[in-house]
Amino acid sequence: MKSLFPLVFSTALVCSCQETMAAVDLILHNGKVYTAEPGQALQQAVAIENGKVLAVGSDSEVLRRKQAGTRVLDLGGKVLMPGFIDSHAHVIKGGLQLQQANLDGQMLSMDELEQRLRQWREDGKAKHGDFLSIGGLPSTYWSQVEQFEQRFNQGEWADLPILFVGWDLHTGWANAAMLERAGIDTAKVKSLKGEELATIGHHPDGRPNGFLVDAGLYPVQELLPPPTEAELMAGGRAALEHYKRLGITGWMEPIANEIPGGEVNNASVGVLPIYKALAERGELTAHVAALLMADSKAAPADLAALDKVRQQFKGIPNLTLPGIKVFADGVAEIPAQSAAMLEPYSNSKQSGELLIEPAHFGELVSAADARGWLVHIHAIGDRAVRESLNGIEQARKARQSGIPHSITHLQMVNPKEFARFKPLDVIASMQLYWASADEASMDLVKPYVSAMAFQYSYPARSLLKHGATIAGASDWPITTADPWKAIYQAVSRTGPKGVLNATEGIDRETMFQAYTLDAARAIRLDSEIGSLKPGKQADMILLDRDVFQVEPEALRDTQVLKTFFAGREVFSITP
User: Fold this and answer.
1) pLDDT for 6
2) What is the CATH number of the domain that holds 365?
3) Among 9, 239, 292, 435, which residue is least crowded by beta carbons within 10 Å?
4) 138 and 235 fall within a common domain
């Protein structure tokens, strides 16, 4: 034992010296540091070395590590947090829309809408080859289908194919010239039955009225020429800048094998080449967890083809491909009503469209789980949520992999499902910006669903009470990507028409966790990012206000002063 002592002592001395000699690149001190580590109080300072967190603690503890070349930043008492993570956003698509004709959810009069179309026709923003297209229309427009027909099927628009796309990306309206190009006519309508018939709005005699939903919309969208590589790169750069300003340093891209507006199949590479190109140029200053969309009725054998796509994009800095995304249903708002419900809609007596096959969906989830892939499921209606959980349950019975599968949107959840999330280890990826008493919820959903279903709209607190993990998400560009507006809505649940079930409101600290460590787990990067912990990458944001103390109303206007990615400042508001 005596002969080992000098070796042990010298090894300890070397380790001590190496720690002392570590090149501390940056120290941020005199702040309120929220680490997102469970149970940890606010700290004062952080030391960064080689892009990673070296130490977190009090000013005196961390400033001791200062060296000659260390940059020191006095935070002036401001709040420093981990970079936010968006667990569901179509980011390249959002970047494209920043440059194209888009209402961004704004409800205009018909006269104003027509004038906006003329303006975007002239400046080129609405032009897509021979077509005109405007995105981001709120669903409240679809109660005015007759006015669309009267205005955009005649005069200067009669021979010009036009497509208006809803903010939800599931609905739209096409004028007669556009429908003709897509082969949608009375004969087409009369050939459809059941749920398919509901995808094309029509008059009693079968003439299409222009309203389209999901399967009815896709053939029309596919007529638009796909964006060029240059346009996609410009969109990617615009999106990255937008997210830096919002302090978002990571996200899940849920349909990465789709070029916006294009068809998706098992061999599609979608926007993955754009992320690869941005990474190769050193511009991808964010963590992107890219999912490949699998068909809702895909079989386990289909995963092999998707894996061939995955293999083409492995080993790219800041890009991971952790799994697949599946649609279980559509949307709940009238007139689409394609979200799958346990009780039928009161007007149509139909229950929406369940896209997955309950008898076989669990086989797909289990096969993905066996490959080590997460499964991320779009589920809006309470039946879609139930069947999604049933599919995940089958995978959990086969093995306890520890892979955090997730369900996103969760607009309506039956109370019987609340207690299933925790034991099945299912993350609730929720867009709580939508938890608002607004026209969409109060006018387009509430009158047509059961009182029970509506009572549990976006049931954040109920899920939390039963131990579920919530991950923050936006679904940008469907609605704003700004996490602070979503945090405010999650706390207040207020809207222009009152409060959407105040008992489902949750506290701000839970939402801070939802956009940091819990969202990091949703994209399977929680061992690397999501909290300010020694050894993790130093993704951080500096805020303009004390978000722990301000009134809830002030949360929604929070501004990011600085964004750091891997310890490097990638965004700053110049004083």
Assistant:
1) 38
2) 3.20.20.140
3) 9
4) no
